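$ run holo --ligand "copper (II) ion" --emit C-alpha cells
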Amino acid sequence: MNKILPLALCTLLAAPAWSVPRTVTLSLPTMDCPVCPITVKKALERVPGVSRSEVDLGKRQAVVQFDDAKTTAQALTHATTDAGYPSTVVQAR
Ligand SMILES: [Cu+2]
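-- output --
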C-alpha cells in the first residue's frame, strides 16, 4: 500500500482553507477589435481557478480574479498568449 496517499488526500482537502482570492490586471497590447476581448475572456475563464474576468478593449487590459491555490498570474499570461494575445502583468493584489 502507498503510505503517502492518506497524507496527499489530507493536503488536498485542506487546500481550500489556504487559498486566497487574487486580482491581477493584465496588459494585452495586441487587442484591436471587438472580437478580441471575447477570445481573451474565454481563454482566461477556461483556466481552472479563475472566477471572473473583465476585458476592456479601450484600455487593452483584463482584470482577472483567481484562486491562488489553483492557478497563478503566470498561467493567465500563458493562457492569453496561447490564444494569440501575449500579455503581461501590470498590477497584482
Ligand atoms: Cu480582434
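-- notes --
The longest strand covers residues 21-27.
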